[in-house]
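Table S2 (text version). Query chain:
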Amino acid sequence: MSFSREVKEEISKHTSNARHCRIAELAAIVTLNGLVCRDAGDRYHLEIRTENDLALQICLQLIRKLILFEPETEIRKYSRLRQGVFVIKIPEQQAHELLKVLKMDQAFLGESALPSPKAIVLSDSCCKRSFLRGAYITAGSMSDPEKTYHYEIVAPDAEKAQQIQETMQAFDIDAKVVTRKNNYVVYVKEGSQIVDMLSIMEAHIALMNLENVRIVKEMRNSINRQVNCEAANISKTVMAAAKQIDDIKYIRDSIGFSELNVGLAEIAQLRLDYPEASLKELGMMLSSPIGKSGVNHRLAKLSEMAEGLRS
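Corresponding structure-token output:
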């Protein structure tokens, strides 16, 4: 089961007992998937179409509770889709009643999408949470957090996308909107903000699972950065040692160590004898031990001398 499906299954169990929150949740599903249609008898009806069985179940449950009506359902097959689409059909009279309850009053003047619900539906914070739950269940998805962080809700037009975006922003979520084909996508890509969205929708188990993934990924990234840093330092040290040995050999072959003072001759011979030793280790091997900076100073003098001889 995908992580996105796990989230939907969890939040589908959190339908509110408050009527105003039920209205907000159903309003999200209907505004994103509802369509006014006309049948062969020239009568209008409301259709709610979804590919998601969870959205179907919640929608039916909310309709029964809000207008005490059992709508007709069917499954339609479309060639472009692998699976069927669930269709809830509501006759004109009950559709008028439902849209009035949802504050989405619509005159049946022709086949058309439904308007966005009025602001009063989202006046309370709890209603905003229910609205976002409904929107995610019916038109949302999430990437596998093991791979990347991405949360989105697809809206059919710019007005609905803006309403979803503004509802998220009311919870300090930095949601953005982008067009994709003929749809508008409201999305969040920051991991911590997706955690906040899961909290807003009351998907607490999914939230904990996502946090665990984030902790592991951050630890892994931290370890990788540390390993890369250490590898870079080792590489830098090896390259410096190779350059020092090359310079010392040039001095040895050109003028010999007898021309050097005791300190330089001793460090030169130690560097040749112990090519993998650190500066600190070389300093401890000297007859009169010195620190790392002292060893570095002597090796630098040898490099300068080699460059002079080469010139």
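Notes on Table S2: Residues 231 and 239 are 12 Å apart (CA to CA). The chain is about 55% helix and 15% strand.
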